[in-house]
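Continuing the series of single-chain predictions for the mutant panel. This is the parent chain; the variants come on the following pages.
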Amino acid sequence: MVWIDGQSPGVSPANFGYRDKARPAASGNEQRAQWQRLWELSGEYEHPYWRTLGEEAIQAGHSGGDYFVMYDFARAVAGEIEPPIDVYDAVTWSSIFPISIENVKRNGEPIDVPDFRGGQ
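Parent structure:
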């Protein structure tokens, strides 16, 4: 079930904390959020891969998720697309675990994730 602000009927019960002029806080008179089935929105939001390769992906196992990772990897190796994950993404994602350990050692003190791209 999903509720998308501005598209799904109603207003979020918490109004997502909007308190500015562009989106005033809920007054209590608005209709409560009406959650929609995800599949009701699939025509608009489903990734094109699922539309064109979904049946093949599901047959590959793991509900199709691994298929698309390997599909993009093969296309990147063949030079058809840029790699969807570069070395900067990989090192950033890999840094989260040791940063989390350090955060716990420091009793929850915020710790910046390094900018491995050097501001680029």
